[in-house]
Each structure stands twice: as structure tokens, then as C-alpha cells.
Amino acid sequence: MPLYDAEPAVASLGPVSAPTGGCDPDRWANLWTHRARLVALARQRVDSREDAEDLAHDALLRAVTSQVELEGLSLGAWLTTVTKNLCVDHLRRRGRARRAVELLSGGRTTPGPEEDVIERAEAAWICEHVSALPIRQRAALELRARGMSVYSIAATLGVSYKAAEALLAHARAGVRLRISQSRQEISG
Predict the structure, then answer these.
(1) Does the residue 3 lie in any domain?
(2) Tens of pLDDT along 5-38?
(3) CA-CA-CA-CA torsion for 105, 110, 116, 122, nearest 10 degrees?
(4) Measuring CA to CA, how many Å separate 36 from each of 13, 50, 57, 119?
(5) Domain end marker among 75, 104, 133
(6) Is 0.70 topped by the overall pTM?
């Protein structure tokens, strides 16, 4: 019974012929014995089996081209490290691509009209709670929502930096309290 979950068709092949470029066939056969373990390792970290196989094969090819002279346990550890690093790089690239799509789409992925209605209702609900705040707390919170720094808020309201921080803290706590009370009333 195989130690790792390898596809029967691939597992029964044994080592494939060494890649062209002067790789020693014995070295390739030694590297190939790590393939199933590397695929299983990559599979734990990425979503698809195909990506896992590609990453494991990239690690094997790096071992061929790197001229690293490792044997036995050292070779396995080196291949494990390379495979893990390749997985991290793969996930970073995928994350960057996902963030780029979000940025290009304005951070939204084709919302339906019901999502717009829900967002407007939530905004109105929160604005209702903000409008119940004392005027200076509400002013500080609105200025902060517009992107002003605490220093700018302090200057605009004619208070010290610490007083502006306190206004913001009290405003946030007040809104949280009102929202919490409102949720309790809704849930009964």
C-alpha cells in the first residue's frame, strides 16, 4: 500500500525519464522517489491537485537545475522547503490577482439590487444611531469618517488632541451601545 495518496496511473509509472539538459538518470530517479510526498505536501496547501502537482514538479526541476549536492534526508528536507516556499509564492500570486480584480471592480463583485437595498438600509440604521450622539461627538465622528486625522479634528473643533481622542472614543462606544441595544430589541 502506498505511503502517500498518488494516482494509480502515475504511481505505477515509476520514475519517468530524466529531463533533458544533462541530469544524471540516477539523480533523477532519486529525486522522483520524493514526488508523491511533495504532491501530498503541496495538496495540503493549495486548492487543486493540478496546482499541487505543478508545484511539486517545479521543486523537482529546481533540484535538477540547482546543482545542490544533498543526499538522503538532506535532499528530502531541501525539497520539502522548496515545495513549501513555492506554495507560499503561489498563494501570494493568487491573493494579489484576487485583490487586483477587487480593485478593478471597485471592491464589489457584481452585487444584485437586493445587496444595494440592504447596504442603504444598514447605512440609514447606523446614521440614525450616530445622529442620537451629542453634537461634539457626532461632529468628531463625522470628521473622522471623512478621513481627517485626529490632529485635524482637534484643530477643527478647537480642542486638544487628547480631547479629540476622547470624543471619538465616546462616540464609537455610544454607537456600539445603541446598536447593541437595538439588536437586543429586534431579537426580543
Answers:
(1) no
(2) 444 444 444 555 555 555 677 877 888 899 999 9
(3) -70
(4) 12, 13, 10, 48
(5) 104
(6) no
